[in-house]
Design goal:
- This protein is mostly helical.
- It is built from five helices and no strands.
- The two termini are 35 Å apart.
- The relative contact order is 0.14.
């Protein structure tokens, strides 16, 4: 899934806001899921099922933690992006990445 999202980001050039929110949400889910494993709220067998989502839905505290981590992730990524200019494709190419398709000519 992560590889597919990365390829979509490079080839499709979706808006940076969408990518930022999606990656922050994925990161927040991973962190909250890890904390839930550590404190015993879920078991390793629940990770493949919807056990993480179900356990988060069972408690407002998990939702609050998820929201806080999500907001921190979005803010951190926007701060990091503040210095970046150009498209994701331009950044990929400047870092030595291979072109998947030719960029449309700019006018």
């Amino acid at each position: 899934m992560a590889v597919a999202l990365g390829m979509l980001a490079i080839v499709g050039e979706p808006p940076m806001l969408l990518l930022t929110i999606l990656t922050a949400a994925a990161g927040a889910s991973a962190v909250v899921g890890g904390i839930m494993l550590l404190v015993g709220s879920i078991h390793t067998s629940d990770v493949n099922d919807l056990g993480v989502t179900g356990a988060v839905n069972d408690s407002a505290a998990w939702w609050v933690l998820y929201a806080i981590i999500l907001i921190i992730g979005v803010v951190a990524q926007f701060r990091a992006l503040d210095g970046m200019r150009g498209s994701l494709r331009d950044q990929w190419a400047s870092d030595g990445g291979r072109e998947f398709r030719q960029a449309p000519p700019t006018v």
